[in-house]
Specification:
Shape: globular
Oligomer: single chain
Order of helices and strands: EEHEHEHEHHEEH
Number of helices: 6
Strand order of the largest sheet: 1-3-2-4-5-6-7
Radius of gyration: 15 Å
Structural class: alpha/beta
Mean pLDDT: 94
Distance between the termini: 35 Å
CATH superfamily: Alpha/Beta hydrolase fold, catalytic domain
Number of strands: 7
Largest sheet: 7 strands, mixed
């Protein structure tokens, strides 16, 4: 099984797409079709999240390994994280040194302020899901130091009716622009034309 998908082309900066809890890289297929090769190189690593048993910081370390293997340690890049992938990407940036090479960060339907849907899951078994609870130690750590995040371009995309991130307004970063997408469900954030269009336009912005 391939561990990642990497499509190369003559220009950049590289774009890294990070999938969510129950996803594979295929979750970005509609977005890739919309981009039509206009963002490259493109890296979409497959992260072993193990239904939420992998701690979020451990997943961020794995993400960092994929990025370094594909692009070295210094090349600037853009990063988009969907759902749990947005928190994983943010951990890589804020806690593992990725901010210094990140130009733009898009958070899509990601519980950056925590979600009530993570509350019932036992942290002893599902530590990755527990990291997404409102007020978790990890989210407090991320939201307690925003200086670095404020120095890059950040944009949160979310659905007000998203039941995976509950309530929907929690799916936003503490800094940067915010766009509410006119879709009703979490999967539609990467499937519905009304969401794919704005995401692609932001990714193609100079």
């Amino acid at each position: 099984m391939l561990s990642e998908e990497c499509v190369t082309s003559p220009s950049g900066p590289p774009l890294v797409l990070v999938h969510g809890l129950l996803d594979t890289p295929a979750v970005f297929n509609a977005l890739k079709r919309e981009l039509a090769g206009r963002r490259h190189p493109l890296l979409i690593p497959a992260l072993p999240l193990r239904l939420g048993r992998t701690p979020t910081l451990e997943a961020a370390e794995l993400l960092g390994g994929h990025i370094e293997a594909a692009f070295g340690r210094d090349e600037p890049l853009d990063l988009l994280g969907f759902s749990m992938g947005g928190v994983i990407g943010r951990c890589w940036m804020q806690l593992l040194g990725g901010l210094g090479r990140t130009r733009r960060f898009l958070s899509v339907g990601s519980p950056q302020q925590g979600t009530l849907t993570a509350q019932p899951w036992p942290a002893r078994v599902f530590s990755g899901i527990a990291d997404l609870r409102a007020g978790s130690a990890l989210l407090q750590r991320l939201n307690g130091d925003l200086d670095g995040l404020q120095r890059i371009e950040c944009h949160s995309f979310y659905s007000a009716l998203d039941l995976a991130v509950l309530p929907g307004w929690r799916a936003v970063l503490p800094v940067g622009a915010r766009t509410m997408l006119p879709v009703l469900t979490h999967p539609q954030l990467l499937r519905d034309r009304a969401a794919i269009g704005p995401l692609a336009r932001e990714l193609l912005r100079p």
